[in-house]
Amino acid sequence: MAYSSKDEKQAAGVMENAYHPPTNKDKQEHTATLDTSVSTTPTSAQSTLASAGYTPATAAEEAAVIRKLDVRLLPFVFVLYSLSILDRSNISNAKLAGMEEDLRLEGGRYEWLGTGFYLGYILFQWLTAGWKQFPAHIWATFAIFFWGFIATIQATTTNFTGIMACRVILGLAEATFGPGVPLYLSFFYPREKVGFRQGIFISGAAIANAYGGALAYGITQIDGRVAPWRILFVIEGIPTCCVAVFAWFFLPDSIAKARFLTEREKRTATIATAREQVIDEGAKKSGIRWKDLWKGMRDPKSILPAIMYFSVNVSFASLPLFLPTIIEEIGAFSTIQSQGLSAPPYALVFVSIIAVSLLSDRFRLRGPFIAAAALIAAAGFMMLAIATSAAARYTGVFLAVQIFVCVSLLVCWLSNLHASESGRTGGFIVMYTVGQCGPLVGSNIFPDSQAPYFRKGMWISTAFCLLVAVTAATLSAWLIKENKNTQRREEEEGESADEERETMRRNIW
Question: Is residue 290 classed exposed, middle or buried when 0-12, 13-18 and 19+ CB atoms within 10 A define those classes?
């Protein structure tokens, strides 16, 4: 980023190594200087910037810059993630469109396809770090084209070995993209506002599962020489490869390199993003800081989100694979109707994700919303386990899919738990690696032998939903205790009331 004077550079907080807010100890000893940091308390920040000849941005200016980032980033990553989910989960629609018979997937082979995908996905979760280590536009273009190509060539397979190889490689390819986007978004937004933006991204999965069912419904009506399931893979895979080209030109690598922002807007966005967290904007080297990465991976507070993410995935990850079959097995619907009826529950969860993410940011709360969504989902899975009527079980589906709301809240909660960009990267690697083991369980708890009610899978999913609620309450209590201890220390050290309140909000629970 270019600056016209040394004072402007100091005011914007650009440093040699990283952008660090001062600690209480720094402020007490008067060792924090403009060359190394900028205070995050409103009064001192404004006076510092004013003395440097830079007029601090107003709240309206900051909101305008954030809206500008929203318009540029959110629609694009939303579409990309919906394509990602569509390409990984359309195999359930392909199964009902004749793939199971054509490829002779008898004897539990179909369940192994889900396991194969997640083996590749889990083993390469560390590739999340690519979003921090490499320019985002290059990394994203590679990732998008890679998974789009593999998703498309599934249409050419003629046996179990071929489709299994494609599923494993597709897992690897998708590990380069989806898990890293919430981390990428955290580089552009203040910590108290990133949750809604990450929720918009995650909601792309719900929309994909909704229109995926409707699209599959239409494709299964195709009558031609090529099997409908092969056409399905081609129609849903090729657009992804085409979109990869746009990523090269559309995604900014950082705030400093966002060509659609003016210099003042870049400074405004940088200062806003640096509130209560550390950013690398303006650093000589903006790649991974290995010490911070390791610290984030070792932090005990990275473990509880990982447990919750694992539990969520046990309950949810298998639903896109088996939901059409579950609806069909309810007994009142045909195969084609099941494809269409799998869409409305995901449309509802899309609305839920957006609404809850917005409320979570507004109230600066994560744990209570996660626990509430998990309890609603548990009630849904219990209905599916107990009820026998079509109406009751279909209603249970609408409740059960609400577990997906927890995913969007977990990624923003983890973002809030780690101050530095590399620390967040380490935390995400732990959460994703542990959490993505959940589908290995979830994709194998709905065997055909349990049809039509799949009671075993429903009760297992219920138990893991309850575990999510308990773990969320535990982590919230931990963070509340830390906030109280911080407040007590500040009172003993004689901090001002404004600074006490500002520091108390460091942990968003």
Answer: exposed
Nearest to 397 by CA among 456, 342, 457: 342
Which tokens hold the place of 413?
Answer: 């909660």
Say which residues have a Cβ less than 8 Å from residue 315's Cβ, sequence separation at least 6. Answer: 377, 381, 400, 403, 438, 442, 461, 464, 465, 468
Residue 50 main-chain phi, psi, to 5 deg: -65, -40
| The dihedral sign for the CA sequence 96, 102, 108, 111 | negative
How far is residue 356's CA from residue 202's CA, in Å, rounded to a whole number?
A: 12
In the chain, the amino acid numbered 409 is: L
> What does the alpha-carbon distance between residue 171 and residue 352 come to, in Å, rounded to a whole number?
27
Q: Which residues pair with 407 in a beta bridge?
A: none
Give residue-wise pLDDT tens across range 340-393. Answer: 777 888 889 999 999 999 999 999 899 999 999 999 999 999 998 998 887 888
Pick from 385, 509, 367: nearest CA to 459: 385
Give 261's DSSP letter: S
Give the pLDDT band (50/70/90) at residue 36. very low
Section 303-317 average pLDDT:
91
Measured from the Cβ of residue 388, the count of other Cβ atoms closer than 10 Å reads: 10
Long-range CB pairs of 60-66 (<8 Å, 24+ gap) are: 61/268, 62/268, 62/272, 65/261, 65/265, 65/268, 65/269, 65/272, 66/189, 66/190, 66/193, 66/269, 66/272
